Known about the structure:
Layout: E1 3-7, H1 13-23, E2 27-32, H2 35-43, E3 50-54, H3 60-74, E4 79-82, H4 97-125, E5 128-135, H5 144-164, E6 169-176, H6 188-200, E7 209-211
Parallel strand pairs: 1-2, 1-4, 2-3, 4-5, 5-6, 6-7
Helix pairs in contact: 1-6, 3-4, 4-5
Amino acid sequence: MSGVVVVGVGPGIGxxxxxxxxxxxxxxxxxxxxxxxxxxxxxxxxxADVLPVTADVxxxxxxxxxxxxxxxxxxxxxxxxxxAAMIRSDRIGDLTAQQHLDAFAVNVVGAIxxxxxxxxxxxxxxxxxxxxxxxxPVPKPDYASLSLGKAxxxxxxxxLHQQYGAAGVHAASxxxxxxVSPGSLWDPDxxxxxxWRLHQQAPAEWIHELVV
Length: 212
């Protein structure tokens, strides 16, 4: 059975999104950079049909191989959620050029690799959702690299819609405008419901950026 692939399934939004889709009877492919993180996430699902895979999103070969393992197990996913991000406080001038490139590789290029690997097959099938966790609705000087990355995410969503929207692939971002923590205005379980609603939208109702 096809289901959801969550890239970046650490505690918080990634795990909450996986739980939300599994609750609907979907299988889940879970990807995280740390073996301990992805195994801990998988343990929360008990007997549910979940496949944990370790991969660094900045390593194209390893990420594509991880996605192939999940497709081999469950088929082309109905939903892909890219939730990986490098979140840190930095201002213009704080980072070297290489550090900016490293951040961009996680925040944007990993999403591009994931989309390039899975979106064509979703388009060929004629359906699917590719959802990216966004943020920084307004750039913040204390989070320069993340602001740049989230601006890149918006561009990726637009490009995916232009390339695959007519074939039935819904590209969208969920832009988080505050700090995620249980019980807050940005409770991860509440946020996860937005991903489910985006996936449920008919093409005529598609939203491409949802600000939470």
